[in-house]
């Protein structure tokens, strides 16, 4: 890492260790990353050369989901957990382009998201804000004063968990945490998830690639779990899955202007949206 990178790093930020948010930023073509992050990205690209396409497919999925929720589904409140660094097409921009009254709270545990997010995302603190909190402490998120200031939990909420649950290990109980959060939300709320997927014996070659990527993530970032279809579907227990169910991201209600090209990660990144029954 060059000295100038230390100089550029905001105070208090550790640029000696890679960060999930910054590696993902690199995959999306962003500039908020350091050499230590790019080294991880290069290792991941060796087993998944189309990882940037997968990241793009995830952002396109996010945009289609948020447009649907703010539009047809009539949702006015969005809680975006593991929101990541600001990028093109942020949740509040998409939601507020459909309905200017949409409230959006971004939550992330990485300080860099807070530094950049406060500057770029929280353009209007009365509708949009960024909170530093950890998904592994759901009560702290639900009770955070900035969350309760913008989110009325007596009304439906869209709980967005794009590319975050696979960063929780099994012993951290991502399913139990999701259930706890959904329990707190009013009937008519929604859960949207995108998640790394290991298709197992159905697609042996893809499965091997998923295991290799999982190994690299765990060695370099200390996190990453490519779960089975059954494990991912379990997040939606008790909820009504919207059509087309749990599918590779480009297959969820595709639109003509989607750009992501299907590649080898096509079957290793899936998503779904579900509604909490009234
Ligand atoms: C791959 S990025 C996804 C960003 C965005 N949601 C998207 O899908 O485009 C994952 C984000 O989750 C955050 N994250 C990972 N574990 C977390 C945790 N336990 N609590 C809060 N945020 C977490 C990371 O810091 C990172 O910004």
CATH T-level fold name = Rossmann fold
Residue stretches low in confidence (pLDDT < 50, at least 5 long) are 1-5
Architecture in CATH? Answer: 3-Layer(aba) Sandwich
The CATH superfamily bears the name Vaccinia Virus protein VP39
Strand content: 5-15%
Rg = 18 Å
Q: How many DSSP H or I helices?
A: 11
End-to-end distance, in Å?
A: 53 Å
What is the global morphology? Answer: globular
Secondary structure category: alpha/beta
Please give a structural write-up.
The protein is 40% helix and 14% strand. It is built from eleven helices and eight strands. Strands 1, 2, 3, 4, 5, 6, 7 and 8 form an eight-stranded mixed β-sheet that branches. The chain is of the alpha/beta class and 278 residues long. Helix 9 (174-184) links the parallel strand 4 (158-162) and strand 5 (190-196). It has one domain (51-275): Vaccinia Virus protein VP39 (Rossmann fold, 3-Layer(aba) Sandwich). Bound molecules: S-adenosylmethionine.
């Amino acid at each position: 890492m060059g000295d100038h990178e230390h100089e550029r790093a905001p105070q208090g930020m550790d640029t000696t260790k890679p960060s999930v948010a910054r590696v993902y930023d690199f995959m999306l073509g962003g500039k908020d990353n350091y050499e230590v992050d790019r080294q991880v990205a290069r290792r991941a690209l060796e087993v998944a050369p189309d990882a940037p396409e997968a990241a793009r497919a995830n952002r396109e999925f996010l945009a289609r989901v948020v447009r649907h929720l703010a539009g047809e589904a009539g949702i006015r409140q969005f809680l975006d957990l593991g929101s990541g660094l600001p990028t093109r097409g942020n949740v509040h921009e998409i939601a507020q382009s459909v309905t200017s009254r949409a409230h959006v709270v971004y939550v992330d545990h990485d300080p860099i998201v807070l530094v950049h997010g406060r500057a770029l995302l929280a353009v209007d603190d009365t509708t949009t804000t960024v909170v530093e909190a950890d998904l592994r402490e759901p009560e702290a998120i639900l009770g955070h004063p900035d969350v309760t200031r913008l989110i009325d939990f007596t009304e439906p909420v869209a709980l967005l968990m794009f590319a975050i649950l696979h960063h929780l290990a099994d012993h951290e109980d991502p399913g139990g945490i999701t259930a706890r959060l959904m329990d707190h939300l009013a009937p008519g709320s929604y859960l949207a998830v995108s998640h790394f997927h290991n298709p197992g014996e159905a697609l042996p070659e893809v499965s091997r690639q998923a295991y290799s990527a999982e190994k690299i993530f765990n060695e370099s970032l200390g996190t990453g779990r490519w779960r089975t279809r059954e494990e991912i579907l379990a997040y939606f227990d008790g909820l009504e899955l919207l059509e087309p169910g749990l599918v590779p991201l480009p297959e969820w209600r595709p639109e003509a202007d989607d750009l992501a090209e299907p590649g080898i990660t096509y079957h290793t990144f899936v998503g779904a949206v579900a509604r909490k029954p009234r």
